[in-house]
Amino acid sequence: MAPPPKDYWFHLKYWALIIPAAYVVSFIYSFGPVMGIGRKMVDYNVDTCEKISGPTDFNFCEDVVLSNVSGVAYTTCDPERHLFNKVMGHHFLEEGQKAKSSDFWRVNYVEVPASIEKFTINKEFDSTSDFHPLGITFDINPETNEQILASVNLAHYGDASIEFFTVDDESLTLTHKRTVRDAKIYNPNSIHIINDVRLRADDGTPSFFFTNDHYFTSGFLKKIENYFLYLSNVGFYNARTGKVEKGINGLLFANGITGTDEFLFVAETYAGTIKKYDIQITFVDDVPQVNLNYVKEAFFYMAVDNLRYVAEKDLVVVAGHPKGIDALIFMMVKDKVNAVKPPSQVDVWDVESGETKTLLVDNGELFTTSTTGLIDLVNSKLIVSSLFDEGLLICDL
């Protein structure tokens, strides 16, 4: 049989171009909406917003939670995250240089001017050594009324952990309660506590869900995992047994997590989705068994970050990066002072109706790299935190 003519349509030399081109088109189609490719950012609802700042180390406050006191929020700030971003694997420390450890803050955002105060952590926990918090949450024991702040700690030179502190709001003191460290908690990002007293340890430490945002802990594979490998997961720490149990596998950059004792919401950053799961708790020989069942999901035109659930309205507040590509470039630049600031966005998902809407868009000039949005219904405020900006953004609703 005679060979096909050289201009035959499926000649290998053409497929050598067609296959890569098809892959690029597929990538842009899948990630274009999340990366914000070609999207023009226009400010929306920022006229009532004010950025509150204070001491020089009150910046890069990635997560924020409401307290049980009206108008008061708690936040953690990692003021040298620009030098060492463990989640994304960007390190700019000089040889022998060590990043400063981080702190907890109490912010009364309804006072004028806002009151910004740093917590003192008791000497049982050396917060000056290698403490670099990320996701945080607040819990009140329904039996003892003990108030607890729990935080992810992405230690730079050791294993990650979840740290628990009891809160004395009047004296601005945190007392270290417990460290949870496990080989299965290797890239923790966000945590969600189960409030049920039946799932607490004898000392009151609660059980909790957590996200591992990556499977790989460093290197090239960690970077490409963001877009191509569904390897991140949700785990469950059973405080009754002291063991970590399986939650959900096969997620793409699992990030923020929120919910109640009945259901859980999980953010997949570069998929642009929030997924809802029912939590099923059963008891076998008085030991709790927890399972998650997928319910539904919602898509957002941004790289979604942290989540907060508003039970009174059945809303999930979603903060993120509407131009994900700009946020990635900004993270890779050492000189962030003179770099172009990526925009911020906060959306909400009405879970019952399935509708989503945008609450806030800022082009980056006022507030960049938004990570968490909180709705305070009592004071009609929106509180926004950031990966790489000063303080917090406070807006009227």
TrEMBL record:
<dbReference type="Pfam" id="PF01731">
    <property type="entry name" value="Arylesterase"/>
</dbReference>
<keyword id="KW-0472">Membrane</keyword>
<keyword id="KW-1133">Transmembrane helix</keyword>
<keyword id="KW-1015">Disulfide bond</keyword>
<feature type="transmembrane region" description="Helical">
    <location>
        <begin position="12"/>
        <end position="31"/>
    </location>
</feature>
<dbReference type="InterPro" id="IPR002640">
    <property type="entry name" value="Arylesterase"/>
</dbReference>
<dbReference type="InterPro" id="IPR011042">
    <property type="entry name" value="6-blade_b-propeller_TolB-like"/>
</dbReference>
<keyword id="KW-0325">Glycoprotein</keyword>
<keyword id="KW-0812">Transmembrane</keyword>
<protein>
    <recommendedName>
        <fullName>Arylesterase</fullName>
    </recommendedName>
</protein>
<dbReference type="InterPro" id="IPR051288">
    <property type="entry name" value="Serum_paraoxonase/arylesterase"/>
</dbReference>
<keyword id="KW-0378">Hydrolase</keyword>
<comment type="similarity">
    <text>Belongs to the paraoxonase family.</text>
</comment>
